[in-house]
Amino acid sequence: MGRSPCCEKAHTNKGAWTKEEDDRLVAYIRAHGEGCWRSLPKAAGLLRCGKSCRLRWINYLRPDLKRGNFTEAEDELIIKLHSLLGNKWSVIAGRLPGRTDNEIKNYWNTHIRRKLVSRGIDPTTHMPINEPAPVEEATSTISSSGVANSKEESNMVKNGISTTNIEKNPVQERCPDLNLELRISPPYQQESLNTTLCFGCNLGIKNTEDCNRSDGELISGSGSNLVVISLG
DNA sequence: AATGCCTCCAACCGCGTGAAG
DNA sequence: CCTTCACGCGGTTGGAGGCAT
Q1: Closest nucleotide to residue A6 (Cα to C1')?
Q2: How would you classify residue A204: left for phi > 0, otherwise alpha for psi between -120 and 50, otherwise beta?
Q3: Strand C closer than 7 Å to the CB of A8?
Q4: Which CATH class is domain A67-146?
Q5: Is the CB of A150 less than 7 A from some atom of nucleic acid strand B?
Q6: Which region ranges are annotated with the description Disordered (predicted)?
Q7: Distance in Å from the first CA to the final CA of chain A
Q8: What is the pLDDT of residues A166-190, one digit of tens each?
Q9: pLDDT above 70 (res A144)
């Protein structure tokens, strides 16, 4: 049995948003706040699916968005974070206030990828293009996409392997100025971590009074494993 | 001016995940 | 446990606009 559609497609608009639709969405969210995207279109009088509304708000209409060109500093931060996290655009976006995952993803694909190639760096592996790709060491290092496979992570945890024990971190070798501390914690350590982390910090987005994690640390990963990354 | 190609980015699609029942 | 539902994420697409010929 397949997943039921998120909305009744026959009665929803698709494609570019009109000014009127934008206004309706903004007005509704100002009045009622974000959330409950499934029921929002009907309540706001929009012939759109909730998913589309959410995307429009997050990527375009949110008042805190910083529109305009990326700075050189942002470029470099994206490159460093991508070398560490891979295509975890939402996590990367969490470190760039006012930028969205979609925006960063597009910017990566259109600008940074090319920039790295022109520097002679493979944008996927972040290694020099003319050097042979390193032999896959999935169980001991971050994979070529920059993200450890979750099943492999699970196996590592099951087998009692912690990345804390990894002696050489290839990312840190590539980015010596980036203070990175990688730690994939087995489930039994989660409790102590969770007691100090609010939801926002878990997403690497913000600190709240609910937690005492100092700024400059973000949490990546989900499920039973957490990756704690310190950014210097 | 017309045409074709290229670039960029907003939006869509499908899937994974966690919560709820 | 299993199923269903809603949300969020990452990959991909399509069209508008810019540029070259």
Answers
A1: C6
A2: left
A3: no
A4: mainly alpha
A5: yes
A6: 123-155
A7: 48
A8: 334 444 455 555 544 444 444 333 3
A9: no
